[in-house]
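Protein modeling request. Please complete all fields; requests missing the sequence field cannot be processed.
Requester role: graduate student
Desired output: 3D structure, token encoding
Chains: 1
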Amino acid sequence: MTIKIPKPLAAYFTAANNHDIDAMLASFAEQSIVKDEGQEMRGRTAIREWMEETTRKYGFTVEATDVAVTDGRTLVTGLVSGNFPGSPAQLQFAFTLEGEKIVNLEIH
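Delivered output (108 residues):
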């Protein structure tokens, strides 16, 4: 089954699976916010640091298994595999887009 994901999100997941930090960051607006593991990162500098740390620490990949749009957010469910207890795990990525850029991402 092929999942239809908006272009900036598809680019983000492709870059994440390739561990390409620059390409991952390219999908985000300057003043984006990311919430993950109880932390909030604001702005591209903080988001880059988060990307570098999580990629190094977990070496993860994501396989999108479902996508839905609700309340102005695109919810992508993904099977995340990597170097962490319980891998693989099903996580939800809640994105808010403005145009072709991610302005908010919450990972649950």
